[in-house]
Fold this protein.
Amino acid sequence: MTGSLFTLPRWLHPAAWWVWALGLAAAASRTTNPLLLSLIIAVAALVVSARKPDAPWGRSFIFFLRLGVAVIVIRVGVQLIFGAAFGTTVLLQLPGVTLPSWLAGVRLGGDITFESVLLAFYDGLRLATILICVGAANSLASPSRLLKSVPAALYEFGVSVVVAMTFTPQLVADVDRVRTARRLRGRPTKGVRAIAGAAMPVFEGALEKSVTLAAAMDSRGYGRRGEISAARRRMNSLLLLTGLVAACIGTYALIAAGSPAALGLPMLIVGVSVCITSITWSARTAVRTRYRPDPWALPENLVAGAGVLVALSFLGANWVAMPGLDTPSNPPTWPALPLLPLLGLLIATTPALTAPTLPRTIIGKLPRIEVPA
Amino acid sequence: MINFECVSITYPGATEPVLTEVNLQIPEGELVLVVGRTGSGKTTLLRAINGLVPHFTGGTLTGRILVDGRDTATNPPRELADLVGVVPQDPMSGFVADTVEEELAYGMECLGLTPDVMRRRVEETLDLLGLVDLRNRPLLSLSAGQRQRVAIGSVLTSHPKVLVLDEPTSALDPGAAEDVLAALQRLVHDLNVTVVMAEHRLERVVQYADRIVIVPGDGEPIISGTPSEMMGNSPIAPPVVELGRLAGWQPLPLTVRDARRAAGPLRELLTGHAAPLRIIKGARDATPLIVTDKLTVRYGAVVALKNVSTTITRGEIVALMGRNGAGKSTLLSTMVGLRLASAGVVRTNGKDPREIKGPELVHSVGLVPQDPGDLLEASTVAGECRSSDHDANVELGTTRALLALLAPEVMDGTHPRDLSEGQRLLLALAIVLAARPPLLLLDEPTRGLDYPTKARLVKVLRELAVTGHGIVLATHDVELAAEVATRVIVLAEGEVVADGPTHEVVLASPMFAPQVAKILAPEDWLTVSEVRAAMIEQVG
């Protein structure tokens, strides 16, 4: 781990990491060039290895890498079995199945061409890259840290998401516990009946835990009466949600190929301003305060900026139809390396240096796995 | 500080109130210990202090509870959060954030304190409870004792005047329990916090208490008084008190130190009297039930067991001791084939337990897990017994007959969830014993058990050993180990650090020595019943 150029060790604002990672993902969505896609994955991996915390969520990147590989394998597999063949380089001839006429568009078996497999591979790689970018954000900034920064108007919603997220690992542990118990009673631990038998105790356990948690949160002051009325608070949340939806549609219209850009920009602007109004409004009346909120300073600007720039470089290259972004698979061509996106990717690596290093004490020992037995 | 004025509480659907006409005054700055059998209404009493009963649980409350002048009837728990801090039995179940520091701040965020106040209080609390090194650690990575201290810290940051704890040390090893109790002691002394705490392990806490409240259950009135008053004729008492009563010491000592100073004559009386032989007569032979050789188990990078070689034979009761996370549970679960050994071997009857499947396994090794409720899934006790007979392939009625021996008061139609902690344990034990496994493993059997149930468990285990069972119990309870074990194995970081006859191992360790041994050292006595037997012999 090298030191940061700008600040003392601290946590980077989680939103900055998410902007950076989503920028990379947006860039990946614009290209099928396998070289560029591999470079995006490399950039994500480089930054993650330089700045990930040694916490349970910090180790999730490797999981997303595996998920990426699985996505590619599935995408190519689907192409092999169902996809329409095109191109001339036949790799393999599978016995074709003649399907009834009402399934006219679907093909089963038949010739497998290099061109069609290559196209499927590019497509799978693109999807995998987007997933890996999300994984990078997930391991650099815990989703619950991100939720800590959600505006007060969405606080209740944020809490329920956090609670749901902590429950998933617990549910897994519960399933394990119940399977253990079945083994101890000499029952089968595999098969449909085993799963059916385990479901009831697991759900009972989950329900009981949520009641305990609710009692604990209640005793610690969650949901104390504020000065604002419930109606006003609900109004505020509604306003914010509407704004967010509008902003999302706007962003989608801007990014997605083939939709009118003229619709996108106004929609985005309206959405964002509605959000800001709602946030400032609720901030003025909130009872809750926030402990050590993550600051948004120069490193955050640099990291988020790197994400925006890499997205812009790919979008720009797409806009001017720069050759090399798309690699044709029929006929197979060697992918080119266009200059502008390459420059963008170079900028995207900078968070490995500009993001602050983490406080030392986070490097604790590995979590002890409680052994249910 | 806390006033119960003629309080009765009835849960919805119940015909009898849990608590009847409770009158109780707790002054500011006291450390109050609430004791009573499981199911007597202790937890209800504790939860009534911040209004969780009845605001959260439902039910009706008559009378009035005033906490610092505020009535819990009109103030729901969230409005009392700045006044009463509640630490639940399992601290992990109440955590909201994911790192220590954020968890400490959560309550203050809800109260809307300003950032600079929050920051200052978090730092103070980290120091007060010795959590500084853990501040950025994920809560999942903490040990049980550390979690308990974080849970206490997370309610302390709101500066409550009252702290309520439900069995804060029951899941902790002796060392971690001492840390937690020392922290509580400091709060009472330095910050004048009123602490109300329920605990079964009297031997750990009685010396810290200023007042003891006994909740007898069954509609009988609650009694309270100073520890020495209450301990004089309480049916439940720690070994130090029992020894004091036996020897007729006045005033009755509550701490090992006081007892030691009074114990001179008793030590003299016992000198030269041979300590009893602590082996189970009749059944002991060298038939090994399970053998481990250089057993190593890892979870990823964590080595849970390292080169453990041991043999358990018929007629032995082995206590497995060590810190939280020392590998006790792992050893037990490896012995029933739940964990894969990464090196070394486990053999029972010449077979690897992992290879043994279904009913055959329950006929050779039985494990009662840490939470015995895990084993139960039917909706009535009778149903549970029937499915157990079916699982174990034994004659119908076997489990029910066993249960009648272990816990005669348990009714057929009861839902297993409505049983008390101790009854649940005995039901699970009956299920496991139905298949007559020669080797019986128990993980933390006394967690949350009151003294009468514990005494019954001790009796059952002894009888099993006499009939030729081999028993291994993982436990933090040094008194139980001294009472029942013939051999003690101490694990530390997955390695065996001591293995030998009970008295040799526990006498050599200040952490695992029972109270009687500490009082009568250097003589070789472990339990009150041993001393009683010797004294009767001496006199008669």
